[in-house]
Amino acid sequence: MAFPGQKQCSLAILLPLIILAVGISQVWSRKLMNDDEASMEERYEEWIIKHGKVYNNDEEKQKRFLIFKSNVEYIESFNAGGDKSYKLGINHLTDITVEELKASLNGFKRPQRGSTPPTPFKYANVESVPSSIDWRNKGAVTSVKNQGFCGSCWAFSAVAAVEGIHAITTGQLVSLSEQQVVSCDIHGRDEGCNGGYMEGAFQYIWKNGGINSDANYPYNATDATCNATAEAFEVAQIKGYEMVPANNESEVVKALAHQPLAVAIQASSLHFQFYSGGIFDETCGYELDHGVTAVGYGTNEAGTDYWIVKNSWGTEWGEGGYIRMKRGIGAGLGLCGIAMDASYPTA
Ligand SMILES: *[C@@H]1O[C@H](CO)[C@@H](O)[C@H](O)[C@H]1NC(C)=O
Ligand SMILES: *[C@@H]1O[C@H](CO)[C@@H](O)[C@H](O)[C@H]1NC(C)=O
Ligand SMILES: *[C@@H]1O[C@H](CO)[C@@H](O)[C@H](O)[C@H]1NC(C)=O
């Protein structure tokens, strides 16, 4: 039997309870939000220490914090998305935007030319290639380097290809001087930290009669004046360079089976900026803006074909400074345009 007034009675008790509960949950969620914000700030402080970051003032630091926070949230939500063939991670580039990355780290300028390669392709008649190759295991790839905040990727891309052919033909793996190319290759279209072309770098090294070592002419990430004394001391020579016929991944494989290649890609995306491992299969577009070096190819356990690409953003980026990019995507251009503009020095 119902107790008269039970309804009113229960409401009278419930309402304050509900109000109290809502109030507590609001306070609680605000506290959680503050905790999130606080823990993001803690992570930022730890990140600053880890990377030795120095900001000019608090305003700059706060501006960088907001970029850091938005990048960290992007990375975490991407990774939580599951079922991806690659992962993103927080790295030393987490306080810059993708626009800043493009403006200061990329620096590849696409040469204007017709569809016919200007040089012969000496691997045109290659008929069989190994199913995989990794020039790192053959002593033809130096340690991963870091271009710093200088758009000199084109010099790193070309120099790594020269290091490769030099090691293959002489048996000596020598780290060669990007700074020489950045500072001394200034009479053509190349513009040091403002960008350039791998072809221009090969032309410069060839016409200069060679290139000095990194040890003799060290990198300092600026457009410093060319040191003519260091420029005149050659440690490695090339006889010229050739282009891989554009837009055909099998032609790239034929050349890469014989030596590391300078390749251009579109790299200005958050996916590329924070790539931390796995097989990158993101469609990035074909607006080539970054020079890197292809140092091998292979196939993983799942049967996915990939390129092994050496970047020049230090070892914290990607797989110790490298990225594996999906190979054989069906479009001749290759993932991110990797088959559009491949070239190599001859020795
Ligand atoms: C870079 O090298 C040039 C020439 O050797 C030198 O003048 C300049 O001070 C160096 N800069 C840094 C930051 O090391
Ligand atoms: C230029 O290179 C020479 C030879 O490597 C070196 O002795 C000299 O200190 C360099 N000059 C500058 C300004 O860095
Ligand atoms: C790519 O090059 C190969 C020779 O290596 C040729 O047989 C093939 O037709 C070319 N593919 C395209 C799409 O041009």
TrEMBL record:
One GO molecular-function entry = cysteine-type peptidase activity
Amino-acid biosynthesis recorded as keyword:
no
Q: Where in the cell is it found?
A: Endoplasmic reticulum lumen
Give GO terms for biological process.
Answer: proteolysis
List the Gene3D superfamilies.
Cysteine proteinases (3.90.70.10)
- Fetch the SUPFAM superfamilies from UniProt: Cysteine proteinases
Q: Does the keyword Protease apply?
A: yes
Give residue ranges for domain Peptidase C1A papain C-terminal. Answer: 129-346
Q: Which residues form the signal peptide?
A: 1-29
- Residue ranges of the Cathepsin propeptide inhibitor domain? 44-101
Supply one GO CC term from the record.
Answer: endoplasmic reticulum lumen
Name the family the entry cites. Answer: Belongs to the peptidase C1 family.
Protein name according to UniProt: Vignain
What is the organism of origin for this protein?
Answer: Arachis duranensis (Wild peanut)
**Taxonomic placement:** Eukaryota, Viridiplantae, Streptophyta, Embryophyta, Tracheophyta
